Amino acid sequence: MQQDWLLRGLTEDDRDLMCAHLHGLPPGLRYLRFGHLYPDAALDEIVASFDFRSDLFCGVLSPRRELVAMVQAAPDPNRCFELAFSVLPNWQLNGFALALGERALRMLASRGASIARVRCLRSN
C-alpha cells in the first residue's frame, strides 16, 4: 500500500524532522532561509529554541515521511506574522511553498491574525 504526501502542522515532536530538513539545505538555501550561513550545530540550536506556543509551523512530508518543505510563521511584537519558507532542492518547483503558505495563512486567520508578511532577499 503506497502512502500519500502529507501537509500538516508541525509540533514539538517533529523537531528531529525539522533538524534533518534544515541540514538538507545547501549553503545557498540556508542563506536564503535565515540570511546567514549556519552550520548544522547552529541549526540544531535554532530548532531547539523554536517556540511552539507563539510560532506556527507547517510541513510537507513525503510518502517516506521526509520533511521536504516547511514554513514558520513567527509573530513580531505587534502580532504581525512573518512567514519563512524552506524547500529541499530536489523538491523545489512542485508548489509546496504555495500550499504551505495557503495553509499557514488559513491557520493564522483562524487564530485571529490579520497581518502576515514574507520578506525575501532580492536574490530569492
What does this structure look like?
This protein has 124 residues and is of the alpha+beta class. It has 4 helices and 5 strands. The mean pLDDT is 88.
Strand order of the main beta sheet, please? 1-2-3-4-5
Topology pattern, helix = H, strand = E? EHHHEEEHE
Taking pLDDT < 50 over at least 5 consecutive residues as the criterion, the unreliable ranges are none
Rg from Cα: 14 Å
Defining key terms:
alpha+beta; 5 strands; 124 residues; 4 helices
Task: Write a brief structural summary.
Helix content is 34%, strand content 23%. The protein is of the alpha+beta class and 124 residues long.
Helix and strand topology:
Elements: E1 6-9, H1 15-23, H2 27-34, H3 40-49, E2 56-61, E3 67-75, E4 81-87, H4 96-110, E5 116-118
Parallel strand pairs: 4-5
Antiparallel strand pairs: 1-2, 2-3, 3-4
